[in-house]
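Q: What does the assembly look like in three dimensions?
Context provided by user:
Components: two
Sequences:
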Amino acid sequence: MEKTTFDAIVIGSGISGGWAAKELCEKGLKTLVLERGRPITHIKDYPTAMMNPWDFKHRGMMPKNFSDTNPILSRCYGTAEDTEHFFVKDNDHPYVQEKPFDWIRGYQVGGKSITWGRACQRWSEYDFTSPAKNGYGIEWPIGYEDIAPWYSHVEKFVGVCGNKDGLEAMPDGEFLPPFEMNCVESHMKETISKHFPDRHFVHARWAHITEQKEIHRQQGRGPCLNRNLCMRGCPYGGYFSSVASTLPWADKTGYLTIRPFSVVHSILYDEKTGKATGVKIIDANTKEELIYNARIIFVNASALNTNLILLNSKSNRFPNGLGNDNGLLGKYICFHIYRAHAGGNIDGFEDKYIYGKNPTDCIMANFRNLHQQEMDFVGGYTVFAGAIRARTESVPENEAQLGADFKHKLSEPGLWRIYMYIQGETIPKITNQVYLSNDKKDEWGIPLLVTDIGYDENDDKMVADFLEQSRLMLEKIGCRDIYSGDNHQAPGLDIHEMGGVRMGKDPKDSLLNGHNQLHACKNVFVTDGACMTSTGNQSPSILYMALTARAANFAVEQVKNGKL
Amino acid sequence: MKRRQALELTATMFGGVIIGAETFISGCSTKVKDVDPFSDENIIFLDEVGETILPTSERSPGAKETKIGEFMKSIVLDCYHEKESGIFISGIDKINELSKAQFNKPFLEILPEQRLTLLSEIDAEARTNKSNDEIHFFTMMKQLTIWGYFTSEPGATKALRYNPIPMSYKGCIDYKVGDKAWS
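A: Here is the predicted structure of the complete assembly.
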């Protein structure tokens, strides 16, 4: 008979679920990971990883029958002929948009960790304290000092490349050597620091192994080979994902069970003990209902799905969703602003080129509202930036536009092009929310999620500042043909949705405590994006991983002390 | 790592402009004649259009060797919306008409130099086309030729330098004029 009782259940196998599984299994807890999608095995299930450009019938472009039936997914930057199998199709998993929200999902073992952006900058103390200090959020129950050792713990295992820059806004960590800047990026760094002394243009930090350490060797992961085809899955394990790293690691302990095709319906609550007892799932294929029990439950279903599961976990004690005594579950959803970009061309570096493909961007650490509130908007933003030199796209008007000479010109490298884009903080607001549909259900009988999430004036002001400042910096760098723009993309397309089950000090205005436990149901932990009290301006995944490792170790302690 | 990749794709795969599923709003249906627009003869025709744009030279193969006609067919049929594919297909007849008007013969029967003269004229017209709602058929043919050529095996490996597993990254190396770009 199939085993139904475990020490721990982890809902979701993505970037944070993988970490929960690793930490819990390493500490000897028999752990069940529930994943709603299909199984994915490292290397074996990367069907496109070694394909050449000409092996794709449409050389990457999705056919129109795909884009017509998947308008949401087609807007995602990462969806192409070589990666589409790792993304949820629009019609397979509908949701209700009260306001436009592009919800990008990856339902498979490994979740979105297979296709993630891989940026791994740490939050600074300012990111944690700024919302409460400047009146646009509640206080985080933890600070930088609490999470710093867990950042280190995670970085060493993941393999994060970067440079120690000693920046207040972007603390250093346990870094492997960075990919070097190209000559134009070095020029950008020099001119920006000369003209804007408080703006730091540096290597960003990325989950790529640039120097294999013993811990990576033990995972069977080798250095990044600079193919820049990461989102297909890396057969060398050059970048971090759950399937390449944490899940196989957890499996080696002998304590891991992964159950794919498991759609979580709800978490079951026992009034007598005041604890959750287990998880009710519906088999994605057979539609059979099954119950699994455990002493502790980690909810890592991805930010909005974690909200959905908790909202759907109703009982006499919690008629509005598990742990939802204050009615704030599903509220204060926030995200990152990704809608503005800028760029231009630069002359003078025609005699310089690159070898290999750099899978990373440079970064400018936040320089707005850092020490004090000084702008007409609250919060800060990070700028990702870089320079590329691609094949020549066109030849001057007075030259032949067809023929052999034209072909030879197009076969050579073209202009150096500089680009910048924003990753900006948003304000957690009670009006940005998700909730369950009253009447619409999915094919497993689970209510559809309604997204009611939009931009606000603060976002517009931040975007305007970025557009102005990026232009100014591009001018100082010496660009010509400068462009900038706000594409007004819907929230969600940033794929950095956060909140809804936020951490806080006070059960009156938050759902989780400083150890990511539900205030009102202590054996349930939420450590994915749903737990975020505010968004900061840095890429969040590495923080989810650190929070997960910290919470998992706390949970194990509590179990061993008999408190959970 | 969201923008570098997008920019590189746009630059290397699409030559800076993307014609295709998302660029134009579909809905306007163009009546296509009952003949197969991608008959064997028309594939040969498109191969020769491509070969005129990017011909065989001492340095690298021409577009015909990359089966550019078949590639154009795949994209036009699978990725273009009806309005765009209608414009593209009408271009085949238009080129033949212009060829007959100028050289008294259809495109496939004129000499390579005549093809170059003819398509250069059409290209000049396409490049000055300022119509916002109607893209010129030759803009499509030229873009598909360039995109398909440089992502084909002969184009990527012979016209460009193809190194699928670079093993390392060097951000600043010397470049000599004439060195091929990386594919």
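Follow-up: Chain A touches chain B through 74 residues (CB under 8 Å).
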